[in-house]
Specification:
Helices cover 33% and strands 24% of the residues. It is α+β, with helices and mostly antiparallel strands and 248 residues long. Helix 3 crosses helix 5 and helix 4 runs parallel beside helix 6. It is rod-shaped and about 80 Å long. It is found in: Cytoplasm.
Length: 248
């Protein structure tokens, strides 16, 4: 083990949660509040100074005095070690830096969220724009989007039009979206998956559309998709072809 760079175990403390991780790079990851200064009541601790150097095992009062003399804190970074490991540093700054890291981690985690936008093969132009706008907002928010076309009854014979509709939305959202998964038919649903582009190719196409009732339209379209009765008796081929093949 390299001198001056201990690896503190990720074993759980007596509260059943991780207190902190101290890796070889010298970075700390706070997972719960740590004991600081007078809260540390054990007699002796292993100390790491503010420069990252090990000072060995010394009385806690002496370590606390060293921290105070520098205007810093004595932070118990590994309460489960024997003896516990403490570091001399600025606890407020440590919490602030960790808070920023946590926010960045949450932003990256959001990229794994998968939201679904449902379409019908007979969708009209207005509802299509509402759904496309909703998908675009989710992509701009950092989430992945599953765009699903639901076929009911004899609509399953219109899978070619469904594929054209999915190709269209992928094309319309190409400034903000990458096609992560090609259109695929599973049962009576066809879907594709879009992921947000790290660097947009251009401005979003739909979110700038000024619709005072946009939120209501999204909810209405969702409700319509989920509850629309199956009235297709093979007479809507033209409607399906129009939206599936309409130019942008």
């Amino acid at each position: 083990m390299p001198a001056g760079n201990p690896v503190i175990s990720n074993s759980e403390d007596r509260f059943g949660v991780f207190a902190i991780s101290f890796v070889l790079s010298g970075e700390f990851v706070i997972a719960r509040p740590l004991r600081v200064n007078e809260q540390i009541r054990i007699r002796q601790v292993r100390v790491i100074d503010d420069a990252g150097q090990q000072l060995g095992v010394i009385p806690t009062e002496e370590a606390l005095g060293m921290a105070r003399s520098k205007g810093l804190d004595l932070i118990e970074v590994s309460p489960t070690a024997v003896p516990p490991v403490c570091r001399i540093g600025d606890y407020g700054r440590l919490k602030y830096e960790q808070s920023k890291k946590d926010k960045e981690a949450r932003k990256k985690q959001r990229n794994w969220e998968l939201r679904e936008v449902k379409l019908r093969p007979k969708i009209d132009v207005h509802d299509y724009e509402v759904k496309a706008k909703m998908a675009e907002r989710l992509l701009l928010d950092g989430g992945k989007v599953k765009v699903t076309i639901m076929f009911r009854g004899r609509e399953i014979t219109y899978t070619a039009f469904g594929k054209r509709l999915l190709d269209r939305i992928a094309k319309d959202l190409e400034n903000t979206a990458l096609l992560e998964r090609e259109a695929k038919l599973e049962g009576k649903n066809m879907f594709l998956i879009l992921a947000p582009r790290p660097t947009p190719l251009g401005p979003p196409r739909f979110v700038h559309l000024k619709t005072d009732t946009a939120h209501h339209d999204v909810e209405t379209a969702d409700h319509h998709d989920d509850h629309e009765p199956d009235t297709d008796h093979g007479t809507d081929t033209d409607a399906v072809a129009t939206i599936g093949g309409a130019s942008a």
